[in-house]
Amino acid sequence: MNESINEYLLVIQPNEDLTDKIMEIKKTFSETYQCPQAMHLKPQITLVKFSQYELAERRFVNRLRNIAMANQSFSIMLDDFGSLPSHTIYLKVQTTNRIMELIKELKQVNAYIKPNAQTKPHFITEPMVSIAHKLLPWQYEKGWLEYSNTHFNASFMASELLLLKRNEDTKGYRVEERFPLLNQVKKLEQASLFEF
Hints:
Number of strands: 9
CATH topology: Cyclic Phosphodiesterase, Chain: A
Mean pLDDT: 91
Strand content: 25-35%
């Protein structure tokens, strides 16, 4: 039996208004620099990217949900553009402390989100909202010349984590689960006292 492995992303997405505004930036970039892939992914802050067998999904989904439930909503501020030379242009996340604390907690599920010893999950170390990645040298150079002098400032409340999923037959990711940030740490601790 050949069991399928899926790719997953756990992300934070901006609210609808801000998503629309960032999609306009991505669309302009795509048209100006002949970069259609800029339009493929919605604006998001990726927390972890991993692959796992379909059969293991229920086990790690429950653990991710518990972590989300124990955390409260928080504000995220985006301020201006950054780049990863010579291939990516992104919006900089200014408020990274809560995101990095969340990633530290997510590392507790490491054993549940890796299918084997060779395939390790990728926990991000620098939160960002990608405008365009995998750029050709000329796209990066011209794009960065423009966007390094362009200002952008916005903030939004992170109120849920989204689990995106893609199997080997599909090109794009789809939303598999939504995990609201509920700040229910006290209730969870109390419930665990009665678990057998």
